[in-house]
Amino acid sequence: MVATAGLALGLALIGGYLLGSIPFGLLIGWKVGKIDLREHGSGNIGATNVGRTLGAKWGFVALGLDALKGLLPVLLAPLLLGGLSREAAPHLGVFAGVGAVLGHMFPCWLGFRGGKGVATALGVVAMLAPLSTLLAAGVFAVTFAVSRIVSLGSMLAAITFAVAQFWQLGPAPFSKNTWSIAAFSIAVPLLILVRHRENVKRLLQGTENRFGSGSSSAKSTDSEEAGEG
After folding, report:
1. Integer CA distances (angstroms), 139 to 158, 218, 229, in order
2. Is residue 156 part of a domain?
């Protein structure tokens, strides 16, 4: 029983990682602009740098594809692997979602240097926790409208999701059927914040890029940490 549950969860994690590691932003850059996105703008492969470098339309395309590679594993893992273990069934979507976020952040095909994971995490949590996702999206929208800083909105949205999710889980968040989403609600927002540590430094220095300002035309010297996505 334990071995079967471990197998199911491991397969969900690996499957999510492989799907999440598809670098859609980089592929769009190659196909649309004939460029290596890592050598333009902020050097990040996420949707924000796609939009800054190739235009808002392609930025939204990258955002949708990155979100989709978070959504699909969460949707498919219970359908494909749910029959392996009843014990693992409530947690398969969460493990697949964690894998997808890690795949986007640390794709093995790109030397484990990927995006910030925000768009992919959005696809994951839209399936796992839609109410908390709506609250987080609202915070992002208000923050971005006021500041025009994507990174600030992303970090505040991650914090909002964690708080809202624990409020929903109630007094026993780490129960038998909810321990995985409770752990996810701590670990993934925390990882997103860590991935934005260079953005935090620039926010404190007052030098963080504002969307549409054109200030990211030169590639950052710390390309794997610059930008968002």
Report:
1. 9, 29, 17
2. yes
Q: Do the Cβ atoms of 26 and 42 come closer than 8 Å? A: no
HSE on the CB side for 158, CA within 13 Å?
Answer: 24
pTM of the predicted model over 0.70: yes
Sequence-separated contacts (24+) of 31-36 with Cβ below 8 Å:
32/58
- Specify the pLDDT at position 43: 87
Domain count along the chain: 1
Q: Residues 147-167: what's their mean pLDDT? A: 96
In the predicted structure, residue 34 carries a pLDDT above the cut 90: yes
Q: Note whether residue 219 is domain-resident.
A: no
Of residues 186, 11, 191, the one with CA closest to residue 91: 11
pLDDT tens-place string over residues 172-212:
999 999 999 999 999 999 999 999 999 999 999 999 988 76
> Is 54 within a domain?
yes
- Give the structural domain span for 146: 2-205
Within-domain flag for 88: yes
Distance separating alpha carbons of residues 215 and 70, to the nearest angstrom? 30
Number of Cβ within a 10 Å radius of residue 4: 13
* Helical (H) or strand (E) element with 176: none
| Euclidean distance between CA atoms 10 and 95, whole angstroms | 8
